Amino acid sequence: MKILVTGGAGFIASHVVDAYVKGGHRVVVVDNLSTGFKKNVNPKATFYKADIRDAEKIETIFKKEKPQVVNHHAAIAEVVKSLRDPMPTFDVNITGTAHLLLSSGRHKVKRFIFASTGGAIYGEPKTIPADESTEPVPLSPYGLSKHVGELMIRFYAKAYGFDYLIFRYPNVYGPRQNPRGEAGVVAIFGGLMKSGTRPTIFGDGTKARDYTYVADIARANLLALKRGKNETINLGWGKKVSDRQIFNTIAKCAHFKKKPVYAPYRKGEVYQIAITNAKAKKILGWQPKVKFEEGVRMTFATL
Ligand code: NAD
Predict the structure, then answer these.
(1) Which end of the chain, N or C, is more open, meaning fewer C-beta atoms within 10 Å of its C-beta?
(2) What is the Å distance from ligand 1's center to 8 Cα?
(3) Domain limits of the chain?
(4) Pocket residue to mutate for ligand 1, from 31, 61, 176, most atoms within 8 A of Cβ
(5) What is the pTM (predicted TM-score) of this model?
(6) What local confidence, expressed as pLDDT, does residue 178 receive?
(7) Which residue puts its alpha carbon closest to atom 15 of ligand 1?
(8) pLDDT tier, 182 (very low <50, low <70, confident <90, very high otherwise)
(9) Ligand 1: distance of its center to the CA of 10 in Å?
(10) What is the pLDDT, as a whole number, of residue 82?
(11) CB of 208 closer than 6 A to ligand 1?
(12) Are the CB atoms for 120 and 169 separated by under 8 Å?
């Protein structure tokens, strides 16, 4: 199969590209290298340095490569940044997604896979873990942009007649996560502890997220090539891991003895969230495998 992966120089999608190449697929990567790195791109993939906001360039790539599947991961993926300055997030995550959908329709793409968010789309749900029927109530422009992306995908899939599969990710962690971003707490804390610096916890340490290792996420994207027609699927453990638990788990790996620095909560960040995996199990035969302690150990070894 020929698959066009956007954001394939970034953290998650570079692992997805590796899984596709390993599975014998031909892969085309489109990335503007704003937060991704050329060195992350699998050497067997064809690489285009291009911005998904550049409709003309995107159209030219589709015309030349004629992908059967589009796997869309390129985005501005930072909650706090989107609150400070929302327009770039809307521009990339909404307008960029629209360009990809229009080109997918024109060039008869068969399937569109999308990296949405389970961590930022549900807001503060009454029931945790949240399942896919929970109403999206995003608390940040980033979460809102992903919700709009989902709606556009469902609209154009119907209009053009291609299949879609929307994944709502929890917090994903693992090797290649950029510690300079704001979201990769495992990479950030791990990097700081390695250099003897005390990490900052925003809040009192009870803020909690659901953490899934990146290889598990890549495996779901591989399954998504064949299963799950027109579905929206959470990929979590269904379990909350608090900031304090994360700090302690990494500190154990790093033999770090100092205490964290505590700072006030940041506006727009969800307090606690975890998302289900029952639908992923039923439709894709997917469940996460890598336990948090093991994933942290493997990630820390690469920092
Ligand atoms: P990342 O920043 O490492 O990857 C994003 C990639 O997209 C980068 O390589 C970047 O250069 C590229 N990109 C950004 N803007 C672009 C543009 N205008 N044109 C072309 N390429 C562009 O982030 P990530 O953590 O790997 O996230 C990948 C996807 O998964 C994003 O869509 C994100 O919203 C989603 N997601 C991530 C998490 C997580 O925990 N990391 C959770 C939920 C959803």
Answers:
(1) N
(2) 9
(3) 2-172+212-234, 175-209+238-275+290-300
(4) 31
(5) 0.97
(6) 86
(7) 75
(8) confident
(9) 6
(10) 96
(11) no
(12) no
Dist CA 269 CA 190 (whole Å): 21
Say which CATH architecture domain 2-172+212-234 belongs to.
3-Layer(aba) Sandwich (3.40)
CA dihedral (225, 228, 230, 233) positive or negative:
negative
Cα–Cα distance, 228 to 199 (Å, whole number): 40
Ligand 1 pocket check for 57: Cβ under 6 Å: no
CATH number for region 175-209+238-275+290-300: 3.90.25.10
pLDDT in tens, 6-30: 999 999 999 999 999 999 999 999 9
Kindly report the protein residue whose alpha carbon is nearest to atom 17 of ligand 1: 51
The residue among 16, 97, 30 whose CA lies nearest residue 67 is 30
**What φ, ψ does residue 197 adopt, rounded to 5°?**
-95, 140
Among the listed residues 162, 167, 160, 137, the one whose alpha carbon sits nearest the alpha carbon of residue 75? 167
* Residue 269 binned pLDDT confidence (cut-offs 50, 70, 90): confident
Calculate the CA dihedral of residues 95, 55, 78, 295 and round it to 10 degrees.
120
Please say if 142 is a catalytic residue.
yes
Q: How confident is the model at residue 124 (pLDDT cuts 50, 70, 90)?
A: very high
DSSP classification of residue 67: -
Structure-token match 């590209």, residue found? 17
